[in-house]
Amino acid sequence: MLFAPCCHQCGEFIIGRVIKAMNNSWHPECFRCDLCQEVLADIGFVKNAGRHLCRPCHNREKARGLGKYICQKCHAIIDEQPLIFKNDPYHPDHFNCANCGKELTADARELKGELYCLPCHDKMGVPICGACRRPIEGRVVNAMGKQWHVEHFVCAKCEKPFLGHRHYERKGLAYCETHYNQLFGDVCFHCNRVIEGDVVSALNKAWCVNCFACSTCNTKLTLKNKFVEFDMKPVCKKCYEKFPLELKKRLKKLAETLGRK
């Protein structure tokens, strides 16, 4: 009671071995990493922003501040490009090619749980995803001159996978129909789809060549044909001539009114 130090963690007297650290006394079993609670008495610690941390936790905190990875094998910071194996980062030189035994680099490829150097992997003829640059073991999407994991072939705007739906290409990027229309496309007034070929501009609207037709008899029209606008749609001359006289007068009057405006 008079002379035994008190543990900074539990407040009890320390009888026996004392850990002196961070200007305090601790039971060996009470002196733990502030993050992972690993006992530090026999493995040492690192001061980090007023905390006592084990070295792996210190490295992770330091790496987070630098925007870098921590090797999951040696727990040191990875200064160069990491090797991603089973979704975890490593120093590449911890591994060797499963085929030729060569020490690996960050370009190594994972296939069926094994790692291969790039030359050995290329000899196997396994497709590489155009997005993540990793091997594709299951279903392959062939598009835009590349091969993709199904979940990685996505719209450049909304980043949603196409999953077999139609995509539209522009300047090396793929877009879903909605965002292609919003960003670049002429949309046909009739079918409401992006016009991929020639565009017919008529009645202040855009039309597919095959969609620009008489709204009454469905006869295909061109800009060389005579047609009349009715209900914001084209009507060929023959159908127009069959309209009742009163309707023609209303159409003529409407056209003159719009012309004056």
UniProtKB/TrEMBL annotation:
Pfam family, one: LIM
Keywords: Acetylation, Actin-binding, Cell junction, Cell membrane, LIM domain, Membrane, Metal-binding, Repeat, Zinc
Protein's UniProt keywords contain Cell membrane: yes
CDD domains: LIM2_PINCH (cd09332), LIM3_PINCH (cd09333), LIM4_PINCH (cd09334), LIM5_PINCH (cd09335)
Stretches assigned to the LIM zinc-binding domain: 5-64, 127-186, 187-246
MF (Gene Ontology): actin binding; metal ion binding
Record carries keyword Transmembrane helix: no
Subcellular location, record wording: Cell junction, Focal adhesion; Cell membrane
GO biological process entries: cell surface receptor signaling pathway; cell-cell adhesion; cell-cell junction organization; positive regulation of integrin-mediated signaling pathway; positive regulation of substrate adhesion-dependent cell spreading
Topology with respect to the bilayer: Peripheral membrane protein
Coiled coil: none
GO cellular component, one term: cell-cell junction
Protein function: Within the IPP (ILK-PINCH-PARVIN) complex, binds to F-actin, promoting F-actin bundling, a process required to generate force for actin cytoskeleton reorganization and subsequent dynamic cell adhesion events such as cell spreading and migration.
Protein's name in the database: LIM and senescent cell antigen-like-containing domain protein 1
Organism of derivation: Pteropus vampyrus (Large flying fox)
Gene of this entry: LIMS1
